[in-house]
Design a protein that fits this description.
It contains 16 helices and six strands. The chain has about 450 residues and is mainly alpha-helical.
Length: about 450
């Protein structure tokens, strides 16, 4: 052990002497000084960037099924796909008011949403973005669907002639889809992966897959938005366009019968619009890929709302509005979700939580008419319950809080008066109970002597 220590000290001394002798050379001294200066610059640059990196890495999203509301308040090449590389999404500053309602998102879903901020997809294809929006966020599963998509492209390539026109290509693709892939139409189906799994599709997923395949063969296909429905439009090289109802297997066979084509569209509108009454002429609005993917989130929100999964419906509608902030239908469903959720909570006497939900909706749209009515309804139920429990002071404070939120609401004044009467009666009863009992005297009759 001593020998090893002595040997180490001797070697260290030799190294120090050698290093010092080398530094006596002028050129080496200059090189050493420059090297030390370069190291200092690199360290300073890294240090200056560290706080920013730490700030970004500290951003996290947390969501539970009952979130706490604040009462204050298209290249299809494999090399270009985001599925072939690790996703490292950056957390931007929240500017869209619906971003705080989107709930917990996976890294790949977050990256897809960030990619869409400029109203186009740069790192994802339309097909990939549609898969992710439908809830398919597992990398292996996504890769499996992409391989199936590539297999369908290979099969279509054998069917489409080299000199085919845009319309001929579109017809071959649509008829192939109905012959080989589309089997059952289901209005509520919003997962494009279900087409590959079981052949279930709807107008949005059908148009999405048709557009994805058409573009692969050089056809400029975009989506069309109609009331409660979606179609495709093919732009032709001569400057014209041709609308395609992707849910109709014989659409191109009806090409010479425009009246029958319109009947097909009318039936789809009637089925898709449900309770909507369309009196004005139906407008076919071309939408971009980001707005089309937003429709998938919207459809998921409708399905979850029908199942009374209010938190899930809120998250999906919020994502739809992040992608398409101008969507009136998505906003309407978002507000309806908050309204129905608040009413459902009030039925279970969760009045405080119900009011917090309702306030969030009122901040988004103070003029939403149903919110005003239910704002009064929930406060009425809440104050009435407190009065039944003889908690008049709490009821009085709550009624005054309601007045501060809606000073012009006369019903809140009546609730305040009712609670105040209860407070006064309680105070009088307590005062009477606190009075000491008064002595009672009697006259005693004594017998005469």
């Amino acid at each position: 052990m001593n020998y090893m220590q002595n040997n180490y000290q001797t070697n260290a001394q030799t190294i120090r002497r050698s290093s010092w002798s080398l530094l006596q050379t002028p050129c080496l001294r200059l090189s050493a000084v420059m090297a030390l200066f370069a190291v200092f610059i690199c360290c300073s640059t890294s240090y200056s960037q560290t706080p920013d990196r730490l700030a970004r890495s500290s951003v996290r999203r947390q969501t539970v099924m009952r979130p706490t509301f604040n009462s204050n308040y298209d290249n299809y090449s494999n090399t270009g796909s985001s599925l072939n590389r690790g996703v490292q999404p950056q957390q931007p500053v929240v500017v869209n008011p619906f971003e705080r309602f989107q709930g917990e998102v996976s890294p790949i879903e977050s990256d897809m949403i960030q990619d869409a901020k400029d109203s186009r997809f740069d790192r994802y294809t339309l097909f990939e973005a549609a898969l992710i929006a439908a809830g398919n966020t597992d990398a292996a599963k996504l890769e499996g669907y992409r391989q199936q998509f590539n297999n369908r492209v290979y099969q279509l390539a054998r069917l489409i002639p080299q000199n085919a026109t845009e319309l001929q290509k579109s017809r071959i693709i649509l008829e192939y889809l109905h012959r080989e892939m589309f089997h059952d139409y289901l209005l509520e189906s919003s997962n494009i992966g279900a087409i590959f799994d079981s052949g279930i599709y709807n107008c949005v997923t059908g148009a999405t897959l048709f557009n994805s395949l058409a573009r692969h063969f050089g056809v400029n296909a975009v989506a069309l938005e109609l009331p409660g429905h979606a179609m495709s439009r093919v732009y032709l090289s001569d400057g014209t366009y041709y609308d395609v109802e992707t849910t109709c297997a014989i659409w191109f066979q009806l090409q010479d019968y425009p009246g029958k084509q319109e009947q097909v569209i009318a039936r789809m509108l009637e089925a898709g619009a449900a309770s909507q009454v369309v009196d004005a002429p139906v407008v076919r609005r071309p939408i971009n890929d980001v707005e089309l993917v937003a429709k998938l989130y919207y459809n998921r929100g409708v399905e979850l709302l029908n199942k009374e999964n209010y938190a899930g419906a809120m998250h999906c509608n919020a994502k739809a509005l992040i992608l398409d902030s101008k969507s009136a239908t998505a906003k309407g469903n978002f507000l309806a979700t908050l309204n129905n959720w608040a009413i459902n909570e009030s039925k279970d006497a969760h009045y405080d939580y119900a009011m917090r939900i309702l306030r969030q909706g009122m901040k988004i749209d103070p003029n939403y008419p149903i919110f005003k009515n239910n704002h009064v309804h929930i406060y009425h139920q809440w104050i009435e319950q407190l009065c039944k429990q003889s908690r008049y002071e709490e009821a009085l404070a709550l009624s005054r809080q309601a007045i501060s939120e809606a000073p012009d609401e006369e019903h809140f004044r009546k609730l305040e008066a009712y609670a105040l009467m209860g407070v006064q009666r309680t105070a009088a009863a307590r005062a009477n109970a606190a009075q000491p009992s008064q002595p009672v005297t009697t006259t005693v009759a004594y017998p005469h002597p």
